[in-house]
């Protein structure tokens, strides 16, 4: 999940998209900033810590599932495919999958090139003889994959329930783009977090040690650092809520008091109790997950879940 950053403390070198998203997000009502901006260097470190928290079940549950499903996945997806991973391949999940399916090539796709090449190099060292072909691009749109894998059947890999960050409309668009990128005969292995009791869901997003709170508040620190912000951090508190109507955990930053600050030379006033919405994490029941996949052009083939039904890994075909 580590993403590179340009951090020399000069607001003038901040990502223009970050600036645009923050200024627009603080202006609109309700206020909202896209979750992708959590992942500067510090944010990526904090996310790594989140994945190890006792309350944060998704990572360890999915990792265990990937080990358990291996024999069956090998039968269903077979060796000799090109594994195409959407997002960085830095986690321990990627080696687990690559050892299992024995692909003919591995194509990690990410928008941020530096980090992509770094993690690709680590993987090529761990898998000598496996062609690793990092591909820099925006996978939310249909892509033309490297020529070397053109004739290989693909196995897409989208772990972590990252799909949950997207509202259903955007999730369906993404699944369709993946189908277009992967082509005929493709399969997709995707992780989705299940709907469950809020007393299990919410602590995963509001842990006792306060790591998730620090992760959320780091967004404000990043704004201060990269966009010349004067946001007093003590004026905001982390909050996680279950939105039952929309089947998602939402993270917000709530103003503890009336607060005024500047970002990039623009003034903002936020009233006590008002929030900045920073993340959605959509959860999918068994049928919800299948409908979502079918809406995106994928036919579910097999799904695996842990004995508590916390998390699902689903194999689908184009
Ligand atoms: C990386 C999007 C899967 O939604 O569970 C973890 C991010 N946010 N704790 C998730 C996250 C707060 C995570 N995803």
Automatic annotation (TrEMBL):
Signal peptide positions (record): none
Keywords in alphabetical order: Methyltransferase, Transferase
Instruction: Extract the InterPro entries matched here.
Output: EgtD, EgtD_Methyltrsf_superfamily, MeTrfase_dom, MeTrfase_EgtD-like, SAM-dependent_MTases_sf
Annotated Gene3D superfamilies: Vaccinia Virus protein VP39
Q: Example GO molecular function term?
A: L-histidine N(alpha)-methyltransferase activity
State its Enzyme Commission number(s).
2.1.1.44
Residue intervals of the Histidine-specific methyltransferase SAM-dependent domain: 18-317
Q: What class of enzyme is it?
A: transferase
Q: Which Pfam families match?
A: Methyltransf_33 (PF10017)
The organism's place on the tree of life at top rank: Bacteria
Q: Name one GO biological process term.
A: methylation
Instruction: State whether keyword Oxidoreductase applies.
Output: no
Q: What is this protein called?
A: L-histidine N(Alpha)-methyltransferase
The root-end lineage is: Bacteria, Pseudomonadati, Pseudomonadota, Alphaproteobacteria, Sphingomonadales
């Amino acid at each position: 999940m580590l993403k590179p950053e340009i951090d020399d403390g000069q607001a003038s070198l901040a990502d223009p998209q970050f600036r645009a998203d923050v200024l627009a997000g603080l202006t609109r009502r309700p206020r909202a900033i896209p979750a992708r901006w959590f992942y500067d260097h510090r944010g990526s470190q904090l996310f790594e810590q989140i994945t190890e928290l006792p309350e944060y079940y998704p990572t360890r549950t999915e990792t265990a599932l990937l080990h358990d499903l291996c024999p069956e996945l090998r039968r269903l997806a077979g060796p000799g495919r090109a594994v195409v991973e959407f997002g960085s391949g830095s986690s321990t999940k990627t080696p687990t999958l690559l050892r299992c399916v024995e692909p003919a090539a591995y194509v990690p796709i990410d928008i941020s090139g530096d980090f992509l090449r770094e993690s690709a190099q680590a993987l090529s060292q761990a898998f000598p003889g496996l062609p690793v072909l990092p591909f820099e691009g925006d996978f939310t749109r249909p892509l033309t994959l490297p020529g070397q894998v053109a004739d290989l059947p693909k196995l897409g890999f989208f772990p972590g329930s990252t799909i949950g960050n997207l509202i259903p409309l955007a999730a369906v668009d993404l699944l369709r783009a993946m189908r277009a990128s992967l082509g005929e005969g493709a399969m997709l292995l995707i992780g989705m977090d299940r709907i469950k009791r809020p007393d299990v869901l919410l602590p995963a997003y509001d842990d006792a040690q306060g790591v998730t709170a620090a992760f959320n508040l780091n967004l404000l620190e990043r704004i201060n650092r990269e966009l010349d912000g004067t946001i007093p951090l003590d004026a905001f508190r982390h909050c996680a809520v279950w939105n039952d109507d929309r089947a998602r955990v939402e993270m917000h930053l709530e103003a503890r008091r009336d607060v005024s600050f500047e970002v990039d030379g623009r003034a903002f006033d936020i009233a006590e109790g008002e929030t900045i919405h920073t993340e959605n994490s959509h959860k999918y029941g068994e049928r919800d997950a299948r409908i979502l996949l079918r809406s995106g052009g994928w036919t579910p083939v097999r799904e695996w879940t842990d004995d508590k039904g916390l998390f699902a890994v689903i194999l689908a075909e184009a």
